[in-house]
Amino acid sequence: MPLENPPGSAFLLAAVGAHAAARFAERVAALHLTPPQVGLLGLIAAEPGQSQQAVARILGMPPSRLVGLVDSLADRGLVERRRNRADRRLHALHITDEGRAMLARIGKVAHEHDDDLCRSLDEGERETLRALLARIAADQGLRPGVHPGYRHL
Prior knowledge:
Elements: H1 9-29, H2 35-46, H3 52-59, H4 63-75, E1 79-83, E2 91-95, H5 97-117, H6 123-139
Antiparallel strand pairs: 1-2
């Protein structure tokens, strides 16, 4: 039975987003990671050598909160801190070989997640959806590839 007042686009985006986030968290939990750790690992790989302060700014989170996330990845040997050559007071963040191997595993999980979530769409529809969502994200001032949830950690 159709709804008298079907939900709006924002409601549907929020509902699908919450569902997708929960399912992704379940999938990466099998790798003993959380979604924030996954995002941080990807950012460090994409922009190696950044200081913790710079990474915190990119993510929009307090540097003090970032320390625990970095520690959790460093303790597993996925990232390492190195003295910044330009300013020895700072530590530059780098991904390790183990971190790169984990990113490959994460990539496989993410691809499976995307396929599962979008299984009712053909490839053309998926591309259209990605383009529309990217346009909405840009209009809302969201940084590509950085989840706004970091601001609330």
